Structure formats: structure tokens, C-alpha cells
Amino acid sequence: MAGKRNVSTLLLMTGHPPGPLWAGRASNRVQWLLAAVGAACLALGVELAVDYAWTAGIIPLLMSVIGCLAVGLLILYGTLAFVHVAVTVDAEALEVRCGHIGVPRRRIRLAEIASAEFVPSITPQQWGGWGHRWRPEKGTAIIVRRGEGLALVLGDGKRFTVTVDDAENAVRVIRTHLRALAR
């Protein structure tokens, strides 16, 4: 009986069952090719370190090994972190999680959102490439592919944009919450 009372109290507080009201994803399979390049750089660095056959000396060898390992790790992280994005909207916030481990992550409380709009076409060229981007005139964005997305204007005037499938419904859910919060 106590469990039912807690659930009914939660329903009265939030106005709907717990869990996301809307969830969407976007992915980019082309990034897997870049991840393969990163893995190849890592393999080259390991091969150079293991098969020491350089006659030029230890310093060039160390520079080559460290360079290959660093480039490989950077490419792997940069691509695998932005292979896909998951966006959820619940009663309290919009949450964006990137990649397989959910990092980087961004959580924006619905009370902080001034407006939301559907953007039918977002391209990486508009933002300077894929990934987590910041442009002074446009704000912050998470771009994993070209296509539809949503753009938020926050209460402090900052903008946040994310590419995600079914963004039009996400905007509809956010606007419904904004109207409910305004009452």
C-alpha cells in the first residue's frame, strides 16, 4: 500500500508517469571510417614501439611512437564519442548524451529554456564540422550528422542546437512543457 501511495504522489507532482516523454537518436555511420583510421594510427604506434629497427636514433623513434599513439587516441575519441547522440525529454529536463559511454553529456532544465524551434536542415559545414561545437554568433551545438534537429534559446540568451531524428515532436513536447510552466 505504501508503494502505491508513493507512485500516486509522484504522479501528482509531475503530472505524468516517470520516465522520458520523448526520446530520439541520431547516428552517423561515416564516423566509423574515421575510427578505423584512428585504430590504424594506434596500431602503427604500437608496431613502431615493438619493432625497434630505426637507425636514426631513439629521439625520432620516440617522437614517431608518441605522435602515432596521440593521433590515434584523439581520432578514436573524437569519432566514437560522436557516432551517435541520444536525446531525452522528461518532466524536468532535456538531456543529451553522446557516444557509447554518454560523454559528453548536457542536461538543460526545462525551466531554463525560453523557446524551442524545429530546424529542418542542419549541416556540419554550418558549425565547422562534426562533434561538440561552439560558435560565438550561434551558440553551442552537438552535430553528429546533417539533417533535422532542434534549437533551444535559453533564459540567459544562449543557444543550444542538436541534430536528432524526430526533432519536430521533441519541440512539440518541450513547448507543451513551457506552456505548462508559464501557468
For the structure shown, list the relevant keywords.
183 residues; alpha+beta; 5-stranded mixed sheet; elongated; disordered N terminus
Description:
- With about 180 residues, the chain is of the alpha+beta class.
- Helix content is about 40%, strand content about 30%.
- The protein is built from five helices and nine strands, in the order H-E-H-H-E-E-E-E-H-E-E-E-E-H.
- The protein has helices at about 1-15, 30-50, 60-80, 125, 165-180; strands spanning about 20-25, 85-90, 95-100, 105-110, 115-120, 130-135, 140-145, 145-155, 160-165.
- The strands form two sheets. It has a five-stranded mixed beta sheet.
- Strand 6 and strand 7 form a beta hairpin.
- Helix 2 runs antiparallel to helix 3.
- The two termini are about 35 Å apart.
- The model is unreliable at about 1-15 (pLDDT under 50).
